[in-house]
Design brief:
globular, binds zinc ion, 9 helices, four-stranded parallel β-sheet, TIM Barrel, alpha/beta, 36% helix
């Protein structure tokens, strides 16, 4: 179970972190779910108390410092994003072992940098749009440069999508989807706020579909029909026999 905690890029004048993160914490506690919250460095600086609350029961990992595509940056800038994002969380006294790149956009040198900065695992590969996601349409976890990669399965044959956004977009058809092995969602999906006009209309319509309380219902229904134990990435990595964290 993963939550990407960032600014509300898709909605106008909304700030979902103080409203939605506590709601997720309550729900996860009730359902005995442990999650990884990939927190943007700037959000860790803005909401230190909320991030510390998350860390009491869940894993806090990094979503880099700014929400910029690493693939658009030079290698020293990429390293800086990874390092600053990790430090923003560690400055709160929280251990930070994992990272997820914004937009899942990484370069081929990504694992070298992730290891150099001191992360133990990465979750930055998605199987949708292979060109965009570093040409690595992997769906099963693997180890590279001593870093565990936990890919995000999206639309490979026989792999159900991991993003709540797809379940929202295709609802009610998505009720028939297989359950994913990983979920990722964003707090702002649960906000009933207007979608920012800066986005192209087609994207705006996609984001607006089943947002807010409808998104909450789709998400909680998905959890209700699952009969597995939802865990954090840290717990998953710890369970790998060849890798101790
Ligand atoms: Zn993000």
């Amino acid at each position: 179970m993963t939550v990407d905690v960032e600014y509300d890029y898709e909605t106008e004048k909304s700030d979902s972190v103080p409203l939605i993160v506590p709601r997720l914490l309550d729900y996860f506690r009730k359902k005995k779910i442990t999650a990884t919250f990939f927190v943007l460095g700037k959000i860790a600086e803005k909401y230190p108390a909320i991030v510390k609350d998350v860390a009491k029961e869940h894993e806090v990992a990094s979503h880099c410092y700014d929400h910029v595509a690493l693939s658009s940056l030079s290698i020293p800038e990429q390293e800086n994003q990874l390092r600053k994002g990790k430090k923003a969380i560690e400055d709160l006294g929280i251990e930070c072992n994992g990272v997820r790149a914004p937009y899942y956009m990484i370069e081929k040198n990504h694992f070298t940098l992730v290891k150099k900065v001191g992360f133990r695992y990465d979750s930055s590969i998605s199987t949708f749009f292979p060109g965009r996601y570093a040409h690595m349409p992997q769906s099963k976890p693997f180890i590279r440069e001593m870093v565990v990669e936990i890919p995000v399965p999206n639309w490979l044959p026989f792999f159900p999508p991991a993003g709540l956004s797809y379940y929202r977009f295709f609802y009610p058809l998505s009720k028939a989807f297989q359950l994913p092995s990983m979920i990722y969602l964003h707090p702002c999906e649960f906000m009933d706020a207007p979608i920012t006009k800066e986005l192209p209309r087609i994207i705006r319509n996609a984001y607006a579909r089943n947002q807010g309380e409808k998104a909450w219902k789709i998400f909680t229904d998905l959890i209700e029909r699952s009969d597995c134990e939802w865990k954090s990435c840290r717990e998953y990595v710890k369970s790998l026999p060849s890798f101790r964290m």
